[in-house]
Amino acid sequence: MAKFLYKLGSTAYRKKWPFLAFWLIILIGITTLAGLYAKPTSSSFSIPGLDSVTTMEKMQERFPGEDDATSAPTGSVVIQAPEGTTLKDPEVQADVNAMLEEVRATGVLQDPETLVDPVMAAQGLAAQMTPALEAQGVPAEKIAADLESVSPLSPDETTGIISMTFDAATAQDVIAEDREKVTSILDSYNDGDLKVVYNGNVFGAAATSLNMTSELIGLLVAAVVLIVTFGSFIAAGMPLISAVVGVGIGIMGIQLATAFTDSVNEMTPTLASMIGLAVGIDYALFIVSRFRNELIIQTGSNDLEPKELAQRLRTMPLETRAHAMGMAVGTAGSAVVFAGTTVLIALVALSIINIPFLTVMAIAAAITVAIAVLIALTFLPALLGMLGTRIFAARVPGPRVPDPEDEKPTMGLKWVRLIRKMPVAYLLLGVIMLGLIAIPATNMRLAMPTDGTSALGTAPRTAYDMTADAFGPGRNAPMIALVDASAVPAEERPVVYGQAVEQFLNTDGVKNAQIAQTTENFDTAQILITPEFDAIDERTSDTLAALRAEADTFADDTGATYGITGVTPIYDDISDRLAEVLVPYVLIVLVLAFFVLLLVFRSIWVPLIAALGFGLSVVATFGATVAIFQEGAFGIIDDPQPLLSFLPIMLIGLVFGLAMDYQIFLVTRMREGFTKGKTAGNATSNGFKHGARVVTAAALIMVSVFAAFMAQDMAFIKTMGFALAVAVFFDAFVVRMMIIPATMFLLDDKAWWLPKWLDKILPNVDVEGEGLVELNEDRTKELKENAGVGAS
Fold first, then answer.
1. DSSP label at 151?
2. Which residues make beta-bridge pairs with 515?
3. Which residues are listed as membrane-spanning (predicted)?
4. Fewer CB within 10 Å, N- or C-terminus of the chain?
């Protein structure tokens, strides 16, 4: 592979225009197609096979026209009267009706004539329900409780809820212009005396719109790190340009995919952007850094100032520079391919869990990473070839950071010498520190994104909180029990439904239960269950579990069956499923990490400590994330929430690949020194010296890119940005730069032990580019013989 990559890199450098044109045509073409055919992303997180999803599907069969609660094109408008008034006051009611008349006139709603103010709706509901319930002999107290549970008007008459359904198949199909026609009217009335906010499937999609602020902040910080690393403004810009092109192609491809599937979740593009931008910059950094080192070697001096290097480059022949690029791509590029492959494996492995929306998110991120690898191997060399001898021009004034090739000790070498003196102390320090940080992870709670997890101040969150205050928290977490009495004689079914209602009412955590509707032949009933607590309260999950625990007893007693569905049960089931597969996935990734690194390093101990170190950095990341985002430690987060259900498993998949990146780029130099005759200790020190600077720069860039996404309003992206930034920090600076070298020093020669029988059967993966040694010698000799060729 190293020889193939050498030819690819040198060819792209010399014949730059076809490579540049290819990627730019791809970028322009896919952007154009996405602009023409892309559709809105989905906000659904449903998982086939869950009890709640199966019940929902059965309900849609028994009640034709019933929408999927998680994707229906519905929304709610929450209205609050001015202080000191109620919604029944004539002036207030007139304002509400004027607003609704404007909304009806937009023509974007189904059955706009059903859109009435909460006061009239409540009166109509009471007039319809009360006589019917009285005829059934329902006590007045229960009638009042049933009305209160479904009334669109709060008991104090100050707050009302108006439900609306857009004229579309699903919330995803509602075009932005139609949604904005309604929200602009609602926002205009919110500026007056009324308080008007909105939430639900349709309006939630508008609240999660993203901006490019995070990407720009990440790029800015990355630029500073690259400028310091290379000492040149032009060289620093190369990784940024290649990363932006790669991410642009990836994100536009994801947008285009929405034209062919509705499985692209609203969080997918940002997640792909986050990981694609980080690895794209890092992979380019590794190659440009190695290219710089190869050019320094070609100049015949390891101690050149940037200005002197630039002067030497002006007279360096094209073929010499192309050879240096070939060597860079053949060596660092090999590591990039292998590191990128580990990221792809970890992400694609998420499909084993068989959760559709998670699979789509993972595959989208994986494709973006694959594009980043291809861009680094082809577009980047061509871009550097276009600049030719000007690559390290525009020198940054100020003192130069020593290169690993210099005779002077680098900061990396000074650090690893400290570890070598006291390896036990540094090993214990790293393990104990991460272990203590991991402790809060034992309290980790998971929940799916709802309006209640939206950022404070957004319309969905304000509507959610207003509803909870006015109607009780359980109004935000309704559940539907689908009671199937088809096996029960027709005359006994009313009794069975009454028994179901009574059983649900006697369940801890249930505020009210009532029959919502039945089929025409009375064989199936929907029973609306209103819990006491909201959708993200752990006690609501306990209530759901208690309701389901009595299902078998109910079936034995009555011959009827029931299942529980609704948005809250579906999201709760998704959280449970993700929690169930978390540990198996961790084990899969750890075993995978071991075997991947076994191939790279041909050692038993090196991959073992690398995998264990990865596990330690992950649990420490969970601990820090739980402490800050769930428990509100240090007051950094003003709205502590449970962690998003799929955050842990996505985090593991992403961090695994990144951790292996640093392991490969840092430890391959150690193995290279050991195989060339250095003692194990000296090989560790020398390898660390060569790899520490570029890994430090890469880690700082990744931390900056990920941390910048904390500026997003979307809870998942904000938390994921923090978690990834912390994970990279822990893994790069504590595990890879403290625990790993300390363990390597303690193991000494044993670190590279591999049974002979295993050594024979393992394929040889040339990550260090050993196959290029002879080619490099021959090519260098040939270039010296043709030294008369001028630079181009």
1. -
2. 527
3. 20-38, 216-236, 243-261, 267-288, 324-353, 359-385, 424-442, 582-601, 608-629, 649-670, 691-710, 722-747
4. C
Q: Is 644 left (phi over 0), alpha (psi -120 to 50) or beta?
A: beta
Residue 760 phi, psi dihedral angles, 5° rounding:
-75, -35
3-class DSSP string for 689-747: HHHHHHHHHHHHHHHHHHHHHHHCCCHHHHHHHHHHHHHHHHHHHHHHHHHHHHHHHHH
With 0-12 / 13-18 / 19 or more C-beta atoms within 10 angstroms meaning exposed / middle / buried, residue 314 is: exposed
CATH classification of 1-43+233-395, choosing from 3.30.450.30, 1.20.1640.10, 3.40.50.11690, 1.10.10.60? 1.20.1640.10
- Encode burial over 324-346: b for 16+ CB neighbours within 10 A, e otherwise: bbbbbbbbbbbbbbbbbbbbbbb
What is the C-alpha separation between 282 and 702, in angstroms, rounded?
8
| Pairing between β-strand 561-565 and β-strand 446-447 as defined by DSSP bridges | unpaired
CB of 493 within 8 A of CB of 511? Answer: no
Lowest mean pLDDT segment, chosen from 114-128, 203-217, 625-639: 203-217
- Strands 643-644 vs 446-447: parallel, antiparallel or unpaired: parallel
CA angle 419-595-373, nearest 5°? 85
Look-up of token digits 């022949």: 317
With cut-offs at 50, 70 and 90, classify the pLDDT of residue 782. Answer: low
Percent of the chain with pLDDT over 90: 46
Helices (H) and strands (E) in the chain, counts: 29, 9
Q: What is the tens place of the pLDDT at every residue in 370-381?
A: 999 999 999 999
CB 133 within 8 A of CB 143: yes
Please name which of 245, 408, 234 lies closest in space to residue 306, comparing C-alpha atoms. Answer: 234
Q: Is 587 exposed, middle or buried (0-12, 13-18, 19+ CB in 10 A)?
A: exposed
C-alpha span between 268 and 143 (Å, rounded): 46
What's the Cα-to-Cα distance from 740 to each of 371, 617, 676, rounded to whole Å?
30, 12, 21
Could you give the dihedral angle defined by the CA atoms of residues 172, 175, 181 and 182, in that order, rounded to the nearest 10 degrees? Answer: -10
Higher pLDDT, 189 or 666: 189
Strands 479-484 and 195-199: unpaired
Query: Which residues on adjacent β-strands are paired with residue 530?
Result: 512
Q: How far apart are alpha carbons 642 and 624 in whole angstroms? A: 13
Biggest distance spanned by C-alpha atoms of the chain? 106
DSSP per-residue letters across 250-291: HHHHHHHHTTT-S--BTTHHHHHHHHHHHHHHHHHHHHHHHH
Q: Which residues contact 219 (CB under 8 A, 6 or more apart)?
A: 240, 244, 277, 705
3-state SS, residue 667: helix
User: What are the structure tokens assigned to 110, written together?
Assistant: 């189904």
Handedness of CA 401, 403, 407, 408 (dihedral sign): positive
Q: What is the pLDDT of residues 103-146, one digit of tens each?
A: 999 999 998 988 999 999 999 999 999 999 999 889 999 999 99
Task: Give the pTM.
Answer: 0.79
The CA distance from 109 to 97, in Å, is: 16
4-18, 244-258, 705-719: range with lowest mean pLDDT: 705-719
Nearest of 716, 651, 705 to residue 278 by alpha carbon:
705
Residue 384 in tokens: 């550097």
Count CA atoms within 13 Å of residue 96 on its CB side.
29
pLDDT digits (tens, 9 = 90+) for 556-595: 999 999 999 998 999 899 888 888 888 888 788 778 778 8
For the chain, the domains span 1-43+233-395, 62-207
Strand partners, 482: 526, 563
Mapped to the 3 state alphabet, what secondary structure does 593-638 carry? HHHHHHHHHCCCHHHHHHHHHHHHHHHHHHHHHHHHHHCCHHHCCC
